[in-house]
Amino acid sequence: MKLNNLVVFCYDFPHFKTKLGLQLLDLFGPENCTIIGAPLENLKISESEIRTQTNETEYLHPREVCDKKNWDYFTFGHNSSETKNLLTELKPSFGLIFGSRILSNDVIEKFNEGILNLHPGLLPENRGLNTIQNAVLKNIPQAVTLHFINNEIDMGRKIFTELIDVKTSDNLFDIQKKITNTEMKIVKNLFEEKIDLNSFYTLETKIPLNKIVGEELKDDFPRLFDNYKNNYSKILNAYK
Q: Sign of the CA dihedral 21, 23, 143, 220?
């Protein structure tokens, strides 16, 4: 299914996943699309003491890319009245998230087909933040799940999950890179119409959202991570 009349949600500041996604949009995506960049918010969310990403600072602002390509770019809060009015005017078929906070139901309902999200974890087992760390703690595979969102966090209509291979030599940064690369491979396949968006099932679960993996596990996590990697083939096979 072709992603016609596409709206892309991203952040209005330099952001790694947004940068990679816009590069693929340029190379493989539809010619006509609209980009909505959400301004930076100061969120009261604790960061994990166990990092999976480097501290490097991104350098390319999404607006620079969009101006270069003459794409329609708007700096609106994703749940703002400005965004809702714009969507009413556009009557979009599909949305695609490269970066966003939780979208409200009245934004989601503006899309004829739905809004696609790439979640860096196995759904429904690994909902919320810190998916790499929580996969280790739960002894479940690292994964990327493509799904249409709804008004619940990391729920909606699941299209498929791609499991990630983990080697005993991998560190957390290696796994994060593998997940990002898998997300971008899926985006490329979406743009090339290699994914059947009509084949999905509804995510239903009573599994709670992940907790932030904090200081209390920092000392014990290396041992847990080594055990996880050593047993990963068994963990992976259980989900294939």
A: negative
Q: Which parts of the chain register pLDDT below 70?
A: 43
Model confidence pLDDT, tens digit, residues 37-61 = 999 987 677 778 899 999 888 999 9
Tally of CB atoms within 10 A around 34: 18
Dist. CA 190–CA 170, nearest whole Å: 28
Instruction: Name beta bridge partners: 158.
Output: 147, 201
CA torsion sign for 175, 176, 182, 185 is: negative
CA dihedral 43, 47, 52, 58 (to 10 degrees): 40
**Is the omega angle on the peptide bond into residue 124 within 30 degrees of 0, that is, cis?**
yes
- Cα of first residue to Cα of last residue in the chain, in angstroms, is 26
Pairwise CA distance, residues 147 & 115, whole Å = 8
Residue-wise DSSP of 189-209: HHHTT-S-TT--EE----PPP
For residue 157, give both structure tokens. 């209509």
Collapsed DSSP state (helix, strand, coil) of residue 83: helix
What does pTM read for this prediction?
Answer: 0.96
Residue 216: the pLDDT is 81
